[in-house]
Each structure stands twice: as C-alpha cells, then as structure tokens.
Specification:
Blueprint: E1 7-21, E2 24-38, E3 44-56, E4 72-85, E5 91-104
Parallel strand pairs: 3-5
Antiparallel strand pairs: 1-2, 1-4, 2-3, 4-5
Length: 117
C-alpha cells in the first residue's frame, strides 16, 4: 500500500516571521482556514482553524518576502509532527505543515463560503 502525507490549504496569513538560515530564507507563518456550516437552528457558523506553516526559499516558494499579515496564500505540503518535553517534564506534541509550494493569491476578491448542511 502506498503511503500519503499531503496537505493543501488556501487561507489568510495571521502571523509571519522570516529569517535566514544557512543563506536561505525561511518563513514561519500561521494560516487561518474557515469551515462554514449551518447549526441546528439554520444559523451560519464559521469554524476557524489555525495552521503553522514553514516554507523554505526555493522553486516552490518564490514569494516569501512578499508574505505579510492579511495576505491570502495557497499552501501545498506535508504534515510534520514533533514531540518535545515542556518545562514541567510533560511530553507535548506539535504539528506544522512543511510547505513544498507556498504562493500568494493575487485575486483581491474575498473567499466565498458555501454553507454545508
């Protein structure tokens, strides 16, 4: 059986930190995606999920210097989990997306939501 670890997002940047590591730029950003549905009473509900994304300068991530808070982005990559021990000695887990492709969405129109349900 072939294994697959692939994530695809289209969302809005909430935070971005750029730095240079070994001569290459790397961007760490948070991306918000929304899932819209109607509750039992028929009222629309927007469920926002924040994703941590890491993108390295290169062929798939050409626009890293242009990314800033509020930008719309397209992310294609894989999920990466990391385990660490916090200050109290408790094992913790964090997940981020390692981007193979990270591009700005130039279209100024806002995302359209379809109500599910």
């Amino acid at each position: 059986m072939e294994q697959l670890n692939r994530i695809e997002l289209r969302g809005t940047v909430g935070f971005v930190r750029q730095q240079t590591v070994n001569g290459k730029m790397v961007a760490h950003l948070s991306v918000a995606t929304n899932y819209v549905y109607k509750d039992r009473n028929g009222e629309p509900v927007i469920e926002t999920t924040w994703h941590n994304v890491t993108g390295w300068e290169g062929k798939g991530c050409p626009d890293l210097v242009k990314i800033e808070k509020g930008c719309k982005v397209y992310v294609f990559g894989r999920l990466r989990g990391q385990r660490y021990t916090d200050a109290e000695g408790i094992d913790r887990y964090s997940y981020d997306i390692l981007a193979y492709q990270l591009n700005l969405i130039e279209d100024p129109t806002p995302f359209q939501y379809e109500f599910v349900g």
